[in-house]
Amino acid sequence: MRRATGISPKRLASLLVGLYPAAWRKRYGTEMLGLLEDDPPSLRGLGTLLVGAADAHLRPQCTWTKSIAPAVRARLSLSALFCCWIAVSMIGIGFQKEIEDPAFSRAAAHHTLLGLAHDTVLAGALLGAAAIAIGGLPLLGQALLQAFRQHDRPLQLIVVLPLAALACFAALTRLLVALAPSGSVARSTWIALAVLVPWWLAGLACATACALAPRLALARLAPSADALRWSSRAGVVLAAAMMLVTVGLIAYVLVLVPVEPRLSGQSGGPVWPSTGLVLALGALGALASTAIALLSVGRSRRALAEA
Known about the structure:
Blueprint: H1 2-5, H2 9-17, H3 22-38, H4 43-58, H5 62-65, H6 70-98, H7 102-110, H8 112-149, H9 153-179, H10 184-187, H11 189-221, H12 225-259, H13 261-265, H14 275-306
Helix pairs in contact: 2-3, 2-4, 6-11, 6-12, 6-14, 7-8, 8-9, 8-12, 9-11, 12-14
């Protein structure tokens, strides 16, 4: 396995243990790592670890969740909610990019349900932005004050991380656009891969940085229960916004494919699947993210009820 992946099974297993909830790791992590050190798992064992991590997130047990303070559990749940919003936001940006051709606007004007689905996605995006502003700006203000008044260097780096990631992604985008010969991406598969793969990876890294920064900041800040309750209320609105976006995406795909088969079947490039397939995958991703967000909202509110 080391030759195929460049990483030993023991090291990979340790990384997979890191995917388990914090409460689980606090209670069982050291023991599990010790077992993995003595008996490195097989490929099947690695799969069992991955499935176990998913099950621990979906069905947390009271025997180990109670080992984490309610405020900490609420922080972790709100962080997970924000990560889900980042995922839905990226899907929404991809959706808007995929349908930027004027033909889609004409189709939306001609088919009422298609236009309504598009408007639902936009309404969800606006509602989500408002929820982020209401629930996140107070915490951002607290983070800025603590970072620069108390000269908290790690928190300063966390605060600027999303801005730095966005700036780097924008700079890379401009560079790739400048270096790619005009029209060559649409004609050559190899040039398309050389341009798009680094851009996709950079976009993923940027989204990851934007998703991780709030979690790191919340862990550093340790906000009060009242501040968390305020953010939790905004989180309910954010989850509702994600539901709107998801419903709009699913409805758009279900309407577009039968009424505009030409548009749904067209491709955006030599290495890009059809528009219908891209939108369907995005809708599934939004559905999964929204389901996790709803779980996170419920858990944060239950944790705060105990605080």
